[in-house]
Design brief:
Layout: E1 4-7, H1 9-14, E2 26-30, H2 31-40, H3 46-62, E3 71-72, E4 78-82, H4 100-114, E5 119-122, H5 126-134, E6 138-140, E7 156-161, H6 163-172, E8 174-175, E9 189-194, E10 201-206, E11 210-213, H7 229-239, E12 245-250, H8 256-270, E13 276-280, H9 297-301, H10 306-319, H11 334-343, E14 347-350, E15 363-367, H12 375-382, E16 390-395, H13 413-421, E17 427-432, H14 439-447
Parallel strand pairs: 1-2, 1-5, 2-4, 5-6, 7-9, 12-16, 12-17, 13-14, 13-15, 15-16
Antiparallel strand pairs: 3-4, 8-11, 9-10, 10-11
Helix pairs in contact: 7-8, 8-10, 12-13
Length: 448
């Protein structure tokens, strides 16, 4: 049966390609949602970009028909901007009819009464959903790119085998056991423990063909050594040039940023494996936004790049500590260090706003706080990858770490790419569990 889907503004911002997600049904955009897009088009960052992208898609469609009467979509549906059914008298007393959310709900309720077609409001706003449902509207979340699995892929598993089989891992690699075929993904880690010899175990990686031992487990990167099992796995992904896309998930203090930064400095400055490092942060404010910042791109981005500056400062301290634990204070500041390599084109700091149109060749790109991206933005980010480049997405996708109102723990770009990219031999993922920053950080992360 054909249905009417009334689209809230936040759905269009979340996924500018939303038009292809409703099969052969009617896609209805209330005119007030167009007004909201118009107000958002000049917004800096991801929201403004998505608003402009939606407008361009609608402009292309308008060349094929009258958007007020309805334009046929490629999948068999119809798109129209709703200019009727705007009467807010359908709303009960106590509802502020001047709010755009209320106007969109009114359009939905009026359509439900006027047309003999099931009408559904599609929104990603929880408060909008609660209010609309309480007023009798049928409401659905936008599910097209939402990860439905409750168990997010961790990138590793435990497995038990006889000691003889464990020994084969070091000789020529081990054939994947029959019961694991079809379950283990390329570059997934397997912690193999002996069934007949206590304490005999090995941390391995499935390279797509065989189970092999870790290659970089005894190496350091810019003075840093991984200190727990999951960090060793992440270190393997970050150091391996055959892995072109790595995702690392973990809570505050688990070591995501410092591991990625140390391996980047090692691979670019020490080993010359890549031409440059590009640090990227989506500009989403935690709490109230501080507004526009003065200065050029570099100066505007400095407040957002604190995690990278902190990581480089800690790594520099680590590198300046001698074998007898004597600390030699470096003769330069972190700002001096970054500026020196920035002027030589070896370090760049970017936000997505400045990434459009770029192609990064022979580069190592680290995207921090990737949970703030929508799946659409994450896909666009990865299309910036040129030959011999590597992308690293870092973040914590739990709801209390997401400040972007257009995504949640199941619909953000980080989780989306983890699940969609896990079957490929050039990608890898690890979830970090332990907090290593300090005892206080561990208490805050786990006990509050």
């Amino acid at each position: 049966m054909i249905k009417n889907y009334v689209i809230d503004t936040n759905v269009m911002i979340h996924d500018p390609n939303f038009l292809t997600s409703f099969s052969d049904n009617n896609v209805i955009i209330p005119v007030v949602a167009i007004e909201e897009l118009d107000n958002l088009k000049k917004r800096e960052g991801l929201v403004g970009f998505s608003a402009r992208r939606v407008a361009k898609e609608l402009q292309i469609l308008m060349q094929k028909g009258d958007i007020q009467k309805g334009i046929p979509l490629e999948n068999g549906g119809m798109l129209r901007v709703e200019l009727k059914y705007l009467d807010t008298s359908v709303l009960p007393n106590g509802i502020d009819a001047s709010k755009n959310d209320s106007k969109i709900i009114a359009v939905t309720l009026n359509l439900q009464k006027a047309e003999e077609i099931p009408t559904i409001l599609v929104t990603k706003d929880l408060y909008m959903s609660i209010k609309a449902s309480s007023l009798g509207a049928n409401v659905e979340d936008y599910q097209n790119d939402k990860i439905v699995s409750e168990d997010v892929y961790t990138g590793y598993r435990d497995y038990y085998m006889p000691s003889d089989a464990i020994n084969l891992v070091y000789k020529e690699g081990l054939e994947l056991p029959e019961e694991l075929k079809g379950e283990v993904f390329p570059n997934e880690f397997i912690h193999i423990k002996s069934t007949d010899s206590q304490g005999h175990e090995v941390l391995t990686r499935f390279d797509g063909k065989r189970i092999v031992p870790l290659k970089y487990t005894n190496e350091k990167a810019w003075g840093l050594t991984p200190i727990n099992r999951e960090q060793k796995m992440a270190f393997e992904l970050l150091m391996n040039p055959d892995i072109h896309f790595a995702t690392i998930i973990g809570g505050a203090g688990s070591g995501k940023t410092i591991l990625a930064t140390s391996t980047a400095l090692q691979n670019v400055i020490e080993a010359n494996r890549y031409r440059k490092i590009v640090f990227v942060r989506p500009v989403i404010a935690a709490g109230n936004d501080i507004g526009f910042l003065p200065g050029d791109e570099k100066e505007k981005l400095r407040p957002w790049m604190g995690s990278f500056y902190d990581a480089i400062e800690n790594l520099t301290d680590l590198k300046e500590t001698s074998k007898d634990n004597t600390y030699n204070k470096p003769s330069f500041t972190v700002e001096d260090f970054i500026e020196q390599y920035r002027q030589r084109g070896i370090i760049e700091t970017k936000t997505f706003t400045y990434m459009r149109g770029r192609t990064f060749t022979n580069s190592l790109i680290i995207v921090d706080e990737a949970q703030e991206m929508t799946p659409h933005i994450a896909k666009l980010m990865l299309t910036r990858a040129g030959r011999d480049s590597k992308f690293i997405f870092l973040g914590d996708p739990s709801d209390n770490q997401i400040d972007n109102h257009y995504v949640d723990s199941k619909s953000n770009g980080l989780i989306y790419t983890v699940e969609k990219m896990k079957p490929y031999t050039i990608t890898g993922h690890v979830s970090l569990k332990r907090v290593e920053r300090s005892p206080l950080a561990k208490l805050a992360e786990q006990g509050m």
